[in-house]
Design goal:
This protein is of the alpha/beta class. The protein has helices spanning 3-7, 17-28, 30-33, 38-45, 49-58, 64-72, 74-77, 85-97, 102-114, 127-138, 150-154, 156-159, 176-185, 202-206, 229-246; strands at residues 117-122, 144-147, 164-170, 191-196, 209-212, 219-220, 223-224. The strands form two sheets. The chain has a five-stranded parallel beta sheet, with helices on both faces. Helix 2 (17-28) packs across helix 5 (49-58), helix 4 (38-45) packs across helix 5 and helix 9 (102-114) packs across helix 15 (229-246). The radius of gyration is 19 Å and the shape is globular. The chain starts with a helix and ends with a helix.
């Protein structure tokens, strides 16, 4: 068996025959599959994109974006823990930067410029990033505030106005509190956006615009040590793009 089957061998029993077909195709055509999009892999295997996303979840991944990351870094994964940690992070960031969608960056900076108020939402470890983002915007006199308390997040539909922009900050894009809030707001006129580490997360599908860079999930000794600094990088990039559009010299 190839690298991919070996890597996910314990999950094969959970896959349907169609999902196994896709995984075996990827394993046997790894070089080509690394450069194919979700739609292209689905077309080659005559399956739906939903089948591939569902397969990715059964493999223990956040979605297809993380699977794609694993494919591109498959040559280095076995030795990842033996490498110099600086070099490991460097390689990870380079691969992650290649997944940023510049059109989403431009679209979001325009939306921030037009919004009367920006509401930034984050919980858990993302709370600090939400505060950081909101304070960056405050420096430009943009009406902004952040919220992290569950009861306040539940009240968002009552607080948001049509010309507001609501930002959700989440590493995985699978935080239930944020997903429920985004779902409620999807039935309203208010605009929504997310900054995540996964382009095909549940939260990303709930908002109007999702800015992300794909970062592989990393665990060591039972601890989740997936890089969260990538969210900070996305925030800094977005803020710079917004400044260039809004500040007049």
């Amino acid at each position: 068996m190839g690298k991919i089957i070996d890597q996910f061998g314990n999950s094969l029993a959970n896959l349907t025959p169609t999902e196994k077909q896709v995984l075996y195709y990827i394993d046997q055509h790894l070089t080509e599959a690394k450069n194919l999009s979700l739609t292209e892999i689905a077309k080659v295997n005559n399956v739906s994109t939903t089948t591939i996303v569902r397969m990715s979840h059964k493999l223990g991944l956040e979605g297809f974006s993380e699977l794609k990351y694993r494919l591109k870094s498959s040559d280095n994964q076995e030795n990842a823990l033996e490498d110099n940690p600086v070099e490991s992070y460097k390689k990870g960031f380079i691969q992650a930067f290649e997944t940023i969608q510049l059109e989403e960056l431009e679209r979001l900076s325009e939306k921030i410029s037009r919004a009367s108020r920006v509401i930034v939402v984050g919980v858990g470890l993302s709370k600090m990033m939400a505060e950081y983002f909101s304070k960056l915007l405050m420096q430009t006199n943009k009406q902004t505030h952040y919220t992290y308390e569950s009861h306040m997040i539940d009240l968002l539909p009552n607080m948001v106005k049509p010309d507001d922009l609501v930002f959700f900050i989440s590493t995985s894009g699978e935080t239930k509190t944020l997903i429920h809030a985004a779902e409620k707001l999807s039935y309203m006129v208010a605009d929504t956006a997310a900054i995540t580490n996964s382009s095909d997360s549940t939260l990303g599908t709930m908002v109007n615009t999702n800015l992300s860079m794909t970062v592989g999930k990393v665990k060591f000794a039972g601890y989740d040590i997936t890089a969260r600094s990538t969210l900070m990088l996305l925030i800094d990039l977005l803020f710079e793009s917004y400044l260039k559009k809004s500040v007049k010299y």
